[in-house]
Specification:
mainly alpha, 6 helices, 182 residues
Length: 182
C-alpha cells in the first residue's frame, strides 16, 4: 500500500505570499458608508466626522504604536473612536488629524506605492512612524492611546490585571501574593 502525505505542502514563497495577503486582509478593514468593520465582521466603528480611510489609518497606527498580539483590532478601534467625536466638535483637531494622515499616506506612497494602512510589513510601517514621531498627529495619538487603550476594563484581563481591589478589601487579601514569577 502506498503512503500518501495528505498534509498541505506550503513553500516558503507560498507562505510569504499568503501571509502578506492575510495581513493585507486584516489591515484592509471594510470601509464603506462611514462604517469600518473588522475582517470577520465581529466589530464595527461608526465614522461621522473623519473620512473612513482616515479612521482606518488611525486604527493601524494605534496597533503599530502600541503593538500587542493578544489584542484584537476592536480594542484599537475603540481607543481611537473618540478622535472622530473630537473632530466633530473642534475643526482644528479635524484638520490636524486629516492633514497628518494625508502626510503619512504621502510618505507611504513615496516609499511603498500604497497608503500607510496598506503597507504589509510592520517594520516598514514603524519606519514611517519614526519619520513623523515629532509631529502633532503622532504625539496626540500616542498620548491619547495610553488612556484610550489601557484604561479599558475589557483589555485588563489580557495583561493579567484584575482591576482595582479597593472595593474588594485591598490587595493584601486579594492578589498580594499572586505573583508566581518571583
Amino acid at each position: 500500500m502506498r503512503v500518501v502525505d495528505r498534509r498541505t505542502q506550503v513553500s516558503r514563497r507560498g507562505f510569504l505570499k499568503g501571509g502578506s495577503a492575510a495581513t493585507a486582509g486584516l489591515v484592509a478593514l471594510s470601509v464603506s458608508s462611514g462604517m469600518i468593520t473588522g475582517p470577520t465582521g465581529a466589530w464595527a466603528v461608526s465614522v461621522v466626522n473623519l473620512q473612513a480611510a482616515t479612521m482606518q489609518t488611525l486604527i493601524q497606527m494605534a496597533r503599530d504604536i502600541y503593538p500587542h498580539d493578544r489584542l484584537a483590532d476592536r480594542f484599537y478601534a475603540a481607543a481611537v473612536a473618540g478622535y472622530d467625536e473630537q473632530a466633530g466638535s473642534d475643526p482644528a483637531v479635524k484638520e490636524m488629524i486629516e492633514s497628518g494622515v494625508a502626510g503619512l499616506d504621502g510618505l507611504a506612497e513615496a516609499r511603498h506605492a500604497r497608503r500607510y494602512a496598506e503597507v504589509g510589513w510592520e517594520v516598514e510601517r514603524v519606519a514611517l512612524l519614526r519619520e513623523i514621531e515629532e509631529g502633532a498627529l503622532f504625539r496626540t495619538l500616542r498620548s491619547g492611546l495610553v488612556v484610550g487603550l489601557y484604561n479599558n476594563p475589557e483589555v485588563w484581563p489580557k495583561f493579567g490585571y484584575e482591576g482595582a481591589s479597593a472595593e474588594q478589601g485591598g490587595y493584601l487579601e486579594r492578589g498580594f501574593d499572586d505573583i508566581d514569577w518571583v
